[in-house]
């Protein structure tokens, strides 16, 4: 019964995850084809374009929620399956048997998400710019329904105050959510590892220190990009120029960090397993 239960749970999780992902990809492709200008007029009337854009944003939010829930369901199934075993997955999922680490993950993910938002210009605060002086009503919403490659439209700008706005570009928000959740997961697992080492009075090796340093760049890809742009620049002006040169590659850089964030928990789990086995023997 237990075996059937975790299998059913895992299959359900994969179905929800793939339905969310498939819906998102298909919606992006269809929306792009409907709104891409050509020699002929747009396939839909301009007055209907705004409604379609808001529908696309709603589909994006719903698909993201489905993918997160699907991934969580798969995680729960693996937690049931690997309980009591000595596999790497059991050490990863076992850490979250304690609700404390779910809370740590949530706080770390939200904190990193806010940091990521300001650094990647999803959240924009400009004390030196007055939106009202530029003729923008505050608060207000500005929607750009087209036209760009799939994933970059529709673009929604929310003006909350005279100096603060939120810029929603679907692909950037998706990457921000994925990376923030993975960073939160790695932070919670790292805290668990530290607590375990401390309770077992295990020493930290040089390799562990190097791993922690590398973790800065894995766990904070935007930090790595900022440090890199600062290193390339010669002074403040040079750093600004370097940052502008690197800006078009930011999405690619963040996306490339996702595999590292996925692999990191397995490396941490291997360290935990070696420490645990050493103390058992």
Describe this structure in words.
With 281 residues, the chain is α+β, with helices and mostly antiparallel strands. The protein is 70% helix and 6% strand. The protein has a four-stranded antiparallel β-sheet. Strand 3 and strand 4 form a beta hairpin. Helix 4 crosses helix 5. The two termini are 34 Å apart.
Record the SSE blueprint.
Layout: H1 2-35, H2 46-81, H3 88-95, H4 99-119, E1 123-125, E2 140-144, E3 155-159, E4 164-168, H5 170-199, H6 206-219, H7 221-232, H8 235-246, H9 250-280
Antiparallel strand pairs: 1-4, 2-3, 3-4
Number of helices: 9
Shape descriptor? globular
Q: Roughly how many Å apart are the termini?
A: 34 Å
Radius of gyration: 22 Å
pLDDT < 50 runs, ≥5 residues: 203-248
Measured as a percent range, the helix fraction is over 70%
Major pleated sheet: 4 strands, antiparallel
Strand order of the largest sheet: 1-4-3-2
Structural class comes to alpha+beta
Number of strands: 4
Topology as a string of helices (H) and strands (E): HHHHEEEEHHHHH
What share of the residues does DSSP label as strand, in percent? 5-15%
Average per-residue pLDDT, rounded, comes to: 76
